[in-house]
TrEMBL record, chain A:
Disordered: annotated span: 224-251
Pfam families for this protein: WD40
Organism: Adiantum capillus-veneris (Maidenhair fern)
Keyword DNA repair: yes
Protein's UniProt keywords contain Repeat: yes
Ranges of the WD repeats in the UniProt entry: 36-71, 96-138, 156-198, 256-297, 343-374
Keywords: DNA damage, DNA repair, Repeat, WD repeat
Signal sequence region: none
Listed GO biological process terms: proteasome-mediated ubiquitin-dependent protein catabolic process; protein polyubiquitination; transcription-coupled nucleotide-excision repair
Protein name: DNA excision repair protein ERCC-8
Any Gene Ontology CC annotation: Cul4A-RING E3 ubiquitin ligase complex
Automatic annotation (TrEMBL), chain B:
InterPro entries documented for this protein: STK19-like
Phylogenetic lineage: Eukaryota, Viridiplantae, Streptophyta, Embryophyta, Tracheophyta
Pfam families per UniProt: Stk19 (PF10494)
Top-level taxon: Eukaryota
Name assigned to this protein: Uncharacterized protein
Family affiliation: Belongs to the STK19 family.
Amino acid sequence: MVGRRETGGLSPHRFRALLQRKWLHSMELASHKEVVSAHKSGINSLQIDVTDARYLLSGAADGSVAVYDIELSTCYEHSTQTSKHEALFMVDKGVPRGHQYSVSCVHWYPIDTGIFVTGSFDNFVNVWDTNTAQFSSEDTKIRLCDIGSGAFTHTLTGHRDSVWAVQWSTKSEWVLVSGGCDGAIRFWDIRRAGCYQVLDQQCSQTGRRPPVLKAVLKNHERMENNTMASSSLRKSSSTKQRGQKRHFGVSASDSRTAHYGSVTGLQMTSDGSYLISAGKDSRLRLWDVESGCNTLVNYPSVYVRGHKGMRMALSPDSSLLFIPSDNSIQVRDVWSGHAYPSLRGHYDLTNCCTFHPQGQELYSGSNDRKILVWAPPCHSDTEEPEREVCEQTIRADEDAWSD
Amino acid sequence: MSAVVLALKALRFVLFTFTASHIDIVKLFVCLCIFVLIEDWIIPSDTEVALRMMQEQFPKIDKVSVPPFVLLSQLYSTVKDRTFVDRELEVMKQQRLVRVFKLSTGQDDFAIMFFHDYIAQVNAAKSRLEGKHPQKDLIIFDWYINHILPIHNDVGITYMHLESLLYRVGQSLHENHISLLIKAGFLVRQLAEDKSYWLAIPNIGFLLKNLTQGRKELLSLLSRRQYKEMLMSLLEKKKLRMSQLGMQFHIRDLIGSGQLCLSRTPAGWLVHIPRG
């Protein structure tokens, strides 16, 4: 492969994609790196900061929060060639005004490094400064906090049960997605009142959305059909359209659901056009955000617990999905739902996983108090047959332009 | 059914090789036309074949008169690609070939029934209740067949939506109509929400009890074995005490829902409870 790159037979873009894909599919428990967990109970949430991609934040069920440096190791063991990463610091119940109960969610403040936000079952959201605004709560409302003043800036009401999963859209800075125990997934534009979209599991499309031209044509056909239909029909449809225009958004009484049972996890693809949700009905659904349709991808044999939020991770190129399920981390292809061998290593139920935004590492936290690092093997040697398969699949979904 | 499909597939293959070997434009065109016709119209999708096969294998039970239905998990156990099943099922739903019903036995349990079977059931219920209720109430069954089922593909329906569907054709809905549908077993109240209903199959309660108890019995039977596993051929000969649905029905259901696994051994297929 390197030879072909040298002779120019392989474009740099494809070379990189091929390598990345090969590494992604050969993830295993990393032997060169170890995160020494400082927690005395299960780990509920993990996140790596966005700007440096260097500090790993973890929140645990005993109310403690710790930060690890995942680049500089604290000590190096020569016998096994493992670098150990111990916690830089830890805050727990003993610290004044620390969390009393389990920390359910941790999040780095995206603008200023060194500030992070934690949400907990004691109904507090704490902001910590080491050198906002997202949390899941046991409330039916979502509150957005302004960390400057410490006051709520927004209260979003609409869910009829507690909210377990919240995520900011990766496409628009104003859009927030939330999943509740009532099985609904709602989209909010925080500049406007009310939510503007509710995902409906019955509304579905097969595969990717048709290109714009076809969609327009289809709409046109539908319009024609409408005009050909009886007058009463036309009347009802026109009143409907007018009604939709008058009320921007969706009323709170809208009872469409995205899952049977609570929604426990949300994850958006990096381009913000697809959303993956996990529900208590042990289903994962891939949603097309623009059309609000279920794309009917079935991710087989994933078990989702319903009593706790969980955090899934996506690989940077949005091709693989990592789902904490039982004692292992399940790996699925995002677009087809194909199951790859799962990552086994934890001794207890896994809660969360997060992918290193720049590198090729996956971090997972579990009830067995461990944080495990998954990485491709260090000394990888190229395998011929695998490469061929990789190349074919890449070519199939590659863009048409050249670079 | 499957034999017909096989024959068609063989024919398609022959045609294909024929087109490949003779490069005569006219012949090629004719063959391609036939090829496309067969592809589009005659050969059913894998999902449909599996559905029809399992519908025919549905056990005969004397006590209750429920037309044969297939569980979604059973489809998953037979067809390899689940995404494929979901998508083909959605297409079949929109073509009004099948209807999907949510079952109360689990959060991810769905029953699939052929559309004409369900319609026949509605008609049967109507003729059964003839004379016991006034004609103006009984007309709801006709509305149900003509105006609700073909348009509404969802597994649940709200009162408002029912009303609006009937309003569109100039009919108005009364409480009597709803209570009649509930009495006949075509609607079931949703407990979580007011004024919304699940569409349902009448008289299915007995089978649902069989289903849950049979699942439990089969799982406990396997978990009591030393290695929590058993050969498929041996297992299929066993009889379940609590369920009349038959061993095959339950094995397929549990494999599809991931509570049992299949693995290939030199002695045949082995059924076991997944480890870890």
